[in-house]
Design goal:
Blueprint (H helix, E strand, L loop, with lengths): L6 H15 L7 E7 L5 E12 L2 E7 L3 H8 L2 E8 L4 E11 L2 H10 L2 H9 L9 H13 L10 E15 L7 E8 L2 E7 L2
Antiparallel strand pairs: 1-2, 1-4, 2-3, 3-6, 4-5, 5-6, 6-7, 7-8
Helix pairs in contact: 4-5
Length: 193
């Protein structure tokens, strides 16, 4: 059936309810899944930034494994699990690179240590001297100068094509709603637990 309610509005409502109750240190953590260049799926936690134009924004290095995998295949999935409200949201969508202006905004909002790590480290690459790398980061931080966003650091906007909401119940008769884009419009199905 066609649905007038935008699923992203329901997402924001649930997200706000979880944030009000959450005791975890990083309540914006979300599992990003990509298809690996070796044909194995990959999953890792990233930080959800915000919704812009009904798309989910995440950031990180473009030359990291996740960045290279998204460049190779931009069909991705996000999975949120919220402990306090016992809800899960699963999103499938298409990722595209965000603008440089938006990437600059997110990079400037990071603390200096995070900026230095992004400037100096090549996320996921092998190193033979972790201490030396850490010292480079500490030296950069101690310079106390503005760190500009590296060109390989940006983010992705994930336009959803499918969003599933699940509320866990003690009876295990979980409530599940599946929104899908069909002919440029959201449809809604109730699905079995």
């Amino acid at each position: 059936m066609k649905n007038k309610e935008q699923p992203t509005q329901l997402f924001l409502k649930w997200f706000d309810e979880e944030l009000k109750l959450s005791k975890v240190r990083i309540p914006t953590a979300v599992c990003l899944s990509t298809m690996g260049t070796d044909d194995f799926p990959n999953a890792r936690f990233v930080s959800f930034k915000e919704l812009i134009d009904d798309s989910f924004i995440i950031t990180g290095p473009l030359n990291s494994r996740k960045g290279l995998e998204i460049e190779n295949n931009n069909k991705v999935a996000l999975t949120f699990w919220w402990t306090e409200t016992e809800r899960q949201v699963r999103i499938q969508g298409i990722a595209s690179k965000i603008s440089d202006q938006l990437a600059d905004k997110y990079f400037e909002a990071r603390n200096t240590n995070s900026q230095a790590v992004s400037l100096i480290c090549e996320q996921g690459k092998e190193t033979d001297n972790l201490k030396k790398l850490e010292q480079k980061v500490l030296d950069k931080v101690s310079e106390n100068t503005k760190i500009s966003r590296p060109q390989n650091w940006s983010g992705f906007s994930i336009k959803p094509t499918r969003i599933e909401f699940m509320e866990f119940k003690k009876t295990r008769f979980h409530e599940r709603k599946l929104y899908q884009v069909v002919a440029d419009d959201w449809t809604l199905k109730n699905i079995q637990p």
